[in-house]
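Anyone else keep sequences and structure tokens together like this?

Example one:
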Amino acid sequence: MSPECDHRPSDDVPYHGGDGDHGIRRAYTVTMDDRYERIVRFAAEHANRARIIEHKTAIVDLASAATVFDVTRAAATYVVETKEGVFAVIALASGHLRWRALGRALGLRQLHLASPDVVKDRTGYDVGTVGPLFLGIPAYMDRRLLPYDMIYCGTEDAHHTLAIDPQLIVEQNDVVGWFDGGEFTQRAQAM
């Protein structure tokens, strides 16, 4: 187990957040084991609102997730880049978001998924393993997550899932805006 919050500063990096929040932030090097262990500790500290589910199946997509939990309650965390900065988008995982329309609705220009390097540099997570905790960037959140008592999220470890009260995600993040993901989900195309 890694030491409590053993994060080492690496470099000063420019920060461009929402609402004109700009400046310099200290970037931290966090290893996968550190991040996963932080999530495990967090779940233990909030045991009445979060827990870790261990499973033999590696979760790499919704099909594999469906063998472990109800995917209609799965949350995906995306990292996006815009003219206004880098943000997290926490949404129900069951549909594909229409990014351009979502960006317009949120008032974000040129919204697109961040490159793997940007995701790693800004959050410490690798693409495909981003969970909703310890992001270090402002977040936009899908209102459709809130009615559930528990939702299922990534932990950076494909064999462990975080079941968490969505309100706890709100409390642990800098949520700068809300959206209804149902308005921005791609419709299935007719044959």
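And example two:
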Amino acid sequence: MLDIAVTNHGNNSVGVFLGYDNGTFSNQITYSVGTASPYATEVSDLNSDQRMNLVGTNRGINNIDVLLEYGNGTFTSPRMLSTGSSSSICIATADLNKDNHQGRKGGFGIFKIPKFKTIFYEPYIWEEFQVESTSFTRRKCFSILGFSKFQTSVFPPDNHLDIIVINNGTASIGIPLGFDEVTFESSMIYHTGFGPYSAAVGDFNNDHILDIVITESQDNIVSVLVGYGNGYLGKQSAYSTGSHPYFLALSDFNKDTRLDIVAGNYNDKTISILLGFGNFNNERLMDIGVANSGANNVGIFLGYGNSLFTSQMVFSGDSTPYSIAVGDFNRDDILDLVVASYASNNIGVFLGYGKGSLLRQKTFVTGGSNSQSISIAVADFSNDNFLDIVMTNYGENTVGV
């Protein structure tokens, strides 16, 4: 059964909701992290014992915390690991040196985006995990440009994880390519429009080479950079969205085997969908859907299959759509959209036609009059082969299913 982990920033704890087989959850079990202010969390099997552990960032006190799972849904007290002089706010885990985190020189790599200008990479080996060694490898530092976000992927076909760094302050993205032994070459910088905010990776032109799409919030566009297969990217192609696109998601909405793009537009409260010729329209091409927060709508861009997309098709939503997820909710083999509407205190489900069009949304209340749902995800929590929805309610400090 799927469980849920959350960070409780206001009371310095992390919480776990254990899932039952009927789609319900236990009361929250909390674990204090002392004076830390937890900001983000990641779930991973850090010590190869087939149990999922928690690792989180603590904003303001320059460390991260690790909680090991006992195997019964409970966790150890947090172990704090210093991040030096940087305050981390984002985290991701990956096996960068392909040693299944058992080797003497590795362990799972823990990335942290600090508050200022350095990314740290620290492959830890804890004595609880590795009896041969109780030492730590030295931290490796990589310069980045201004306030940044990042994700990992494999760009050249060398089976080594690479990093995408979104440099919001300098209107660029950087890609340090990975080698063996968790080393990286200097970042290749690609300039973007103003306000790059988030990125996603997919094969938009069906050439089996990864491409990148980014939201450029100040320019009200998303841009696609086509990959060459050697770690380099082509010139960006821009596509208009609603006002201030922040987050995006990729899927084949129209079952045409091509990726589509959906973007959430903060200012106009809309989402934008670019079908990638593209899958909202059943042409087996990837398309894009977005939540346009400022315009109160969602948008779909249908993909052509050559990294180009149609103009955005806009579907009216409720006030301030903030995040978006994709799933087949009515089991008709056509993708649907669900949107969390922050100001309306609800979520909206748009059922797909399969031709790139969506039905008028059906809304569901997410809590009280001030629930303010800001994040959403889709999974089968009750093991009944029907998709369920989980959302975080910022205004009430709850999660809802």
